[in-house]
Amino acid sequence: MAALERVKVLVLGDSGVGKSSLVHLLCHNQMLGNPSWTVGCSVDVRIHDYREGTPEEKTYYIELWDVGGSVGSARSVKSTRVVFYNSVNGIILVHDLTNKKSSQNLYRWSLEALNRDAAPSGVLVTNGDYDREQFADNQIPLLVIGTKLDQIPEAKRNDVLTRTAFLAEDFGAEEINLDCTTPRYLAAGSSNAVKLSRFFDKVIEKRYFLRDGNQIPGFSDRKRFGGGLVKSLHYD
Prior knowledge:
This protein is an alpha/beta fold. It contains six helices and seven strands.
């Protein structure tokens, strides 16, 4: 059997938002029993069927790079993280729906990864305003995922989800909101599963099929969530 081609997807967000639990769910289709802090970077691999159900269907490895740390880290820590930002094909931005600051920090995480060769530029969000022009030329597919959906009080849920919808719009990305302890949020055929599959398809297209910026024809929604662990790597 020929070796499968692969793509690299960063999983970024503040410490404690549930990145490790999310990656475990995506790769194992089950909750992570005893999550711990990620030191450096942890990598799991998910099997994904690109354009499933079409004549172009092909299986790929999706490497999910869970990068530890905080946007408030010392410059030396940020410099260390830069090594993980090389040859990136996609980025999943993860925030805690119960923690507004973790949502705001996604702007800084994304800019750190996309401008990895530039020196840190300080605060990127001023008085709640966001300059979309910072990402106008970005060609890397983005996906925004909100965690701990189950912990939002029912009375506040609509306000929180309205706010996060604008967050995803700023990035020009789709959003998924879920509880990482419950696989049903990514059940086969669900809207979340379709969004996730569409994102991975886009990452693969950008990496292997785009020519001169032109999208290949026939791109459509996927209808199945399937995941399997291939390997687990840790970089400290």
